[in-house]
Design goal:
Length: 210
């Protein structure tokens, strides 16, 4: 058996596209899903708070519940899974765990631990706008990494902002701590992603200052 050819990061970024039509009935091995999510979770985050949570929707019953919430976009039914990317509005609470484990492992000193936890708690104190901005920004970093990881594993994806966040929260019992950022369908394409154009760099890049 010939070993699969490795795909470069550049190839992944160049070939990834938003696929909206998937082969129905394809089951994703649990090992593939776990690897994709593990890679997604390696994204960077402010203070390493890892603001993302992944609500994985894969059963036929749950997909049908998601369908009207996603404004009847069939991709949530036909794709192998749809992952709801959630942002943590109380990510500062995670700082105590993360820096506590680092302290216990001897990776940081007690002084660094106390300084970092204090810094995070101070930033989040009575500042819901910062909590929301951080949740969305950092969860989005992980979402992009998830899509690249999926492409590297031979799957296609589509990020979706068109869904009822209120209905998703209610139907899937999402705690107030988490804010829905986007849905990402993952599966095997039935139709390739539609070709898109990109603005030239001279319209995108501002050198030094406006």
């Amino acid at each position: 058996m010939t070993a699969p050819t490795a795909i470069s990061a550049i190839d992944v970024m160049q070939t990834r596209g938003s696929v909206r039509k998937y082969q129905p009935g394809v089951e994703m091995p649990q090992a593939d899903l776990e690897e994709i999510l593990t890679l997604a979770a390696k994204a960077p985050s402010s203070w390493n708070l890892q603001h993302w949570r992944y609500l994985v929707i894969s059963s036929p019953e749950q997909k049908q519940k998601l369908l009207p919430i996603a404004y009847n976009q069939e991709q949530v039914v036909d794709a192998c899974v749809t992952v709801a990317i959630l942002g943590d509005l109380e990510a500062n609470k995670t700082a105590h765990q993360i820096y506590g484990e680092a302290l216990n492992a001897g990776q940081i000193t007690k002084e660094i631990h106390d300084n970092m936890v204090s810094q995070v708690d101070g930033a989040y104190a009575n500042n819901p706008q910062l909590a929301r901005d951080e949740a969305i920004m950092n969860a989005s970093l992980s979402a992009m990494q998830l899509m690249l990881a999926a492409k590297a594993k031979g799957y296609d994806t589509c990020p979706m902002g068109g869904f009822s966040r209120e209905a998703l929260i209610k139907e899937f019992n999402i705690p107030e701590r988490y804010i829905p950022v986007m849905l990402i369908s993952i599966g095997k394409a039935a139709t390739p992603a539609r070709p898109t154009t990109r603005l030239p760099l001279d319209q995108l890049v501002i050198k030094e200052s406006f």
